[in-house]
Design goal:
The chain is an alpha/beta fold and 343 residues long. The protein has a domain of 203 residues: Rossmann fold (3-Layer(aba) Sandwich). It is 42% helix and 17% strand. The chain contains 13 helices and 13 strands. The strands form four sheets. Strands 3-2-1-4-5-6-11 form a seven-stranded parallel sheet, sandwiched between helices. A two-stranded parallel sheet has the order 7-10. The chain has a two-stranded parallel ribbon with strand order 8-13. Helix 2 packs across helix 4, helix 4 packs parallel to helix 5 and helix 9 packs across helix 13. The mean pLDDT is 89.
Amino acid sequence: MGQVVLVTGVSRHLGGRMAQMLTRDPQVDRVIGVDVVPPRGDIGRAEFVRADIRNPIIAKVINAADVDTVVHMGVIATPIQAGGRMSMKEINVIGTMQLLAACQKAPTLERLIVKSTSSVYGAGPRDPAMFTEAVEPRHAPISGWAKDSGEVEGYVRGFARRRPDVAVTTLRFANFIGPQVETAMTGYFSLPVVPFVMGYDARLQFIHEDDGLRAIHEATVNDRPGLYNIAGDGILMLSQAIRLAGRPPVPLPLPLVPLTGRGMIKTGLADFSPEQVRFLTYGRGIDTTRMRERLGFEPEYTTKEAFMSFVEARGLNKILSPQRAAAAEQVLASVLTSGGSHD
């Protein structure tokens, strides 16, 4: 008898691709994809169930199908995806609480895999060169997706204590990037001109979207309980990444950055939330030794190769015309002077 896997968040790109990937695995008999709206992409032979993980009905879905593996990919990264910060918080935190409550009562459950983020480490001037999984954050995030993810991990640890018979795997990913995935970072590097904090050059790591999905798949079909940092080899400095993307850099004095961030969010140019700004100021490095030695996973793409796959797919490294660069600088100047307000 093969696995029966439930995947949350299948209406989004990564969740839908994960469900599709699992339907092709001979170790998996059945895949059930759950979300509040139907998936836009192909989820293979996965069965879609329209359900909200904030609702206790998710317990009925798990029990009716005798689910033995839950892959939680339903944590939303930006308020735009959720329809506002309040809704985002409810989906991420309350949704996870309800999902774990359902998992706790599920007698058939054997594995829980949680897609988390290295953003839980925060970003700041006192950070270590590389975060191992055992290092506590020195600048813990206080808002947004990163804070939600920290709370989610706390509830997951509580679940693991209550259900020691379930193999719990938490994967802390570096920023996903690639030809198709849409994230705050892909939006940032797609800007016609890229603002950065004057005097700082953040350290960046990426995981190619294909590698990230392979890591989740590895944890799903094998017993690899534990906490793992997941990233491609190497580090890119922010200045290098901007140059590789062929974008004109625009240095901003630190006092102007919060105003710029608010303006970019209001005008829809990019997600420039306070936590995102801190990351793009200080950066972050994560150690992936445990990923290789215990999870047995080796990414195919380095950080630079993953970033270049995104750049080349979007055609970003083409030289901007002087007219387009000037127009983009005017837009950014407008954001700076208005804070994104509209008359």
